[in-house]
Amino acid sequence: MEGVDHLAHERNKSEFDVDAMKIVWAGSPHAFDVSDRISKLVASDPGFRKDNRSTLSRKELFKNTLRKAAYAWKTIVDLRLSEEEAAKLRFYVDEPAFTDLHWGMFIPAIKGQGTEEQQQKWLPLAYKMQIIGCYAQTELGHGSNVQGLETTATFDSQTDEFIIHSPTLTSSKWWPGGLGKVATHAIAYARLIVGGREHGVHGFIVQLRSLEDHSPLLGITVGDIGMKFGNGAYNTMDNGVLQFDHVRIPRNQMLMRVSQVTCEGKYKQSDVPRQLVYGTMVYVRQTIVADASCALSRAVCIATRYSAVRRQFGSQNGGPETQVIDYKTQQSRLFPLLASAYAFRFIGEWLKWLYADVTQRLQANDFSTLPEAHACTAGLKSLTTTATADGIEECRKLCGGHGYLCSSGLPELFAVYVPACTYEGDNTVLLLQVARFLMKTVSQLGSRLSSKKPVGTIAYMTRVEHLMQCRCGVQRGFAELSADLVEAAVAHCQLIVVSKFIEKLQQEIPGKGVKQQLEVLCNIYALFLLHKHQGDFLSTGCITPKHAALANDELRSLYSQVRPNAIALVDAFNYTDHYLGSILGCYDGNVYPKLYEAAWKDPLNESVVPDGYHLYIRPLLKQEIRTARL
């Protein structure tokens, strides 16, 4: 029945203040207010409709994305939204678009790597969207190995210009979002060559298209790389291919905050420390971790609400069947994901603090925390995106057959999210970087020359100093043990997440029962990891078989404590039905009528008899296939 809350009985079971939990999830009363207001603004505006994306052709889909991006910008300007509000509006529009790279990569790169003069020239244009930028680093032949990029930037001292060139097919820029059809400018990364000498990879601001008619400039070959995984999904984005044929740009379009080339052709380091470029990297990866909690919480919200609606088996004396959420097998798969969503939210908050701390230290020429910050952002990006991609797919399975429908929202959510495991650093490569940091830290523990004690996220290593007294007779290289080291890096990152969840609980948390619910979720997250990896814990003697059994018993008890609060815990995410984009996860739980209604809206049902009936089906039925015109 329309207008009836079919999940009201579940919401009435709640043992905590849901409104207070909404503020905890948002981060502050102010953040909640902005998020709540903007999400409702987007949801109530038909201009941001998105329920038909999976039925559109690629051209229709892309054109519709352009319309939405322009409409969003008009809304931002007309309502005079602040930068914070504008960012939230783009978030709730919920459609990958060229604007993601413009605001998320192009502008931060100029702010982080451009000189004051360059920032004054380019940022006002970018902020007003008088130019549209993308971030052209990845090439057809190289992604994670940035130092292997082949695009060249050769300085011509006669004309005071750089010549940007793609010397090989594999040097073609490949994948940058917004590049294919929209971007007017790119920050292109290329090997700097001055006076015949190479000076590594640097960034250059390159105009790609005319600001009058949008045609590619001389020497620029640019286009879209083609369809990607999923219906709708990331196909709203014009991921591009780009080749340079001796394209000339002024010398002052090299990003020169850290390194400079003079008009005489001298390459020199500026007074600004090179380590400042890490600030941009920390910022980008911090946003990726925050996005992980959003994506996972969406999937968990859908699966939790549908699990409460869906009933299967267990009918007693003709009564109702058992709610799927009451089965222990469902709880043991679903509730750890719910706990993970909250855990990732809080680790995202901590990374936001870390970014502010690193930025402040860099400005004071304090680089002491950089190695740890790099390891944290690399490892947590890897951990959270992998767990989220896997978690979204698990939520689809938890929804049974209906989870496979596009109208469930889960297939598109998975298709949109899964590239996060690769962009901004392949997850395995990032874990290897963390492993190198850990091995360096451990080696310093055994060095008499090092007086430094591990602090911060590696403080726990002081407890294993005695391990350095042990020696293995087998000599093995880093590469041979890389799979083991990746596992160690994952464990290190999991420990960080658990410790920051515990730190969150040590803060003052207002609201009846809120802190208690968070404690339950924290314990579920930690104990589920112990259960999942109990072989490692047992084999290393960290726990006994009795401890493992007790942990499993405690997990079952914790699941029972979450059960009456499950719907309220996902309600605390405060997602509108528009943003959630799922019939299975709709707020009122009125799933089946909405699924039935949506089915009849599919274009295939516009005619009762399919278009191909007379050409293909009738000849089969009438045994006329030999004479049919196929």
Automatic annotation (TrEMBL):
Localization of this protein: Peroxisome
Signal peptide: none
Active site: E424 (proton acceptor)
Database matches in InterPro entries: ACOX_C_alpha1, Acyl-CoA_ox_N, Acyl-CoA_Oxase/DH_mid-dom_sf, Acyl-CoA_oxidase, Acyl-CoA_oxidase_C, AcylCo_DH-like_C, AcylCoA_DH/ox_N_sf, AcylCoA_DH/oxidase_NM_dom_sf
Keyword DNA-binding: no
An annotated Gene Ontology molecular function: fatty acid binding
Binding positions (FAD): T138, G177
GO process annotations (BP): fatty acid beta-oxidation using acyl-CoA oxidase; lipid homeostasis; long-chain fatty acid metabolic process
Domain of life: Eukaryota
Domain Acyl-CoA oxidase C-terminal: 465-622
Domain Acyl-coenzyme A oxidase N-terminal residues, every copy: 17-132
This protein's GO CC annotations: peroxisome
Residue stretches making up the Acyl-CoA oxidase C-alpha1 domain: 278-439
Cofactors demanded by this protein: FAD
Keywords in alphabetical order: FAD, Fatty acid metabolism, Flavoprotein, Lipid metabolism, Oxidoreductase, Peroxisome
Family listed: Belongs to the acyl-CoA oxidase family.
Protein's recorded name: Acyl-coenzyme A oxidase
Upper taxonomic lineage: Eukaryota, Viridiplantae, Streptophyta, Embryophyta, Tracheophyta
